[in-house]
Amino acid sequence: MIGKVAVGTDGSATAGEAFSAALELAERYGAGLLVLSAFNAGSGRTAAPRLTAPAHPEWASNAAEQVERILAAAEEMAAGRGIECSSAMAEGDPGEVLVALAAKHGADVLVVGSKGMDRRVLGSVPNTVTHKATCSVMVVKTA
To answer: What is the CATH number of domain 4-140?
Structure first.
């Protein structure tokens, strides 16, 4: 049974596709939704790539204020569809943060976008999540 769907977001288009899939999954199973994100307190107001190659920017660790806005917008969108939603964020490496928060909040499945899966660079968010998550993982194929 799926009672809680977690989804990672950084506000990017890739994360938006994962969020849409998580909304559909939560609706289908009547599950709660948990929206997760990471931030880097030293990054200021601009998002800076972290642990990614410059040619493939993904999953920027965002300033806490920016993440709060992203999470609030996601919660509002879920509420508009009648889905019970909460959010959580923490400072650190995005992949590690998603895994830790999903476990802490008892997620049954963690949804992430596939951007970065074709690369073999350590630190890729979907690679970290698929290898370290203690719950099931859904990787949404994104462009």
So the answer is: 3.40.50.620
Quick check: 108 and 31 in contact, CB under 8 A? yes
Q: What's residue 124's pLDDT?
A: 85
- Cα separation, 133 vs 109, in Å, equals 9
Q: How far is CA 87 from the centre of its chain?
A: 10
> What residues have CB less than 8 Å from 91, skipping those under 6 apart?
38, 39, 40, 41, 64, 97
Three-state DSSP state, 134: coil
Q: Would you state the structure tokens that stand for residue 28, as one six-digit string?
A: 């289908």
pLDDT single digits (tens) 2-44: 999 999 999 988 899 999 999 999 999 999 999 999 988 764 4
Q: What pLDDT sits at residue 62?
A: 54
Chain centroid to CA 80? 20
Overall pTM > 0.85? no
Residue appearing with tokens 């920016």:
66
Show Cβ contacts of residue 12 under 8 Å, excluding neighbours closer than 6 positions: 58, 59, 60, 113, 115
